[in-house]
Amino acid sequence: MKRMKQAFFKEWEKVRRLGGRAGAEYIWQYYHLWIIGIGFLLGFAIFLLTRFLTTPSKTAFYLILANTREEAGSGSALWEGYIAYSGYDPKEEQVVFNSDSYFNYARDQGRGNVYYNFFAGLVDAGVLDAVTMETDALTALGTSGRLLDLNREECASIRRKYGDRFLYAIPLNREYSDSPVPVGIDISGSSLAGKYHVYEGGCALGVGAGTGRLEAVELFLDYIFSEEG
């Protein structure tokens, strides 16, 4: 530490003797990489602090739109439409649409797939509200136990509106059920497949098993089946 202080004061004395423009040029010539690095770190720290202070801590709705190449994430036209339809204020509570996820449970049961592991982590933490993907892929995913059984009492309103669209699967865990249970909703005729072209063929929505925001899921279903959607 003492040697560093001595070196600093030595350099400072050199700059002081040079004075004005010559001193500034000396500093830039020999220390510009340090200056750029420190400036970058300060800028990044300010960015992180700003995000921390301005990003709402509460989440209103978290959706994964898996296996699509369309721009359907947060900030997209689909997201903007849901914000307008639902009345959520993204400045007060987060509405997250994640369209950067690719996995098919039917192919490998998620083994070694980082996207599936991310999905599973969100479900287990109670963060994920819903996931959309191709119909067959969603039905296969329903066997994993990470999609909500839509026969549950809290799904009564969704069941009344969309029960004729339910998709069924037999859980891998036969202790839960050895008969098919409703694990998804066919949304092939919605604006998700039509107006927004997120999926070209059949598609479906499943509800995260740990969600506590079924109202937001129902609002999304109403939105994509509405004329406004």
Structure description:
The protein has helices at 2-18, 20-54, 77-86, 105-108, 114-124, 135-141, 156-162, 214-224, and strands at residues 59-65, 94-98, 130-134, 166-169, 181-186, 203-207. Helix 1 packs across helix 2 (20-54) and helix 3 packs across helix 8. Strand 1, helix 3 (77-86) and strand 2 (94-98) form a beta-alpha-beta unit. Helices cover 45% and strands 14% of the residues. The longest helix is centred in the N-terminal third of the chain and has 35 residues, at 20-54. The protein has 229 residues and is α/β, with parallel strands linked by helices. It is built from 8 helices and 6 strands; from the N terminus they run H-H-E-H-E-H-H-E-H-H-E-E-E-H.
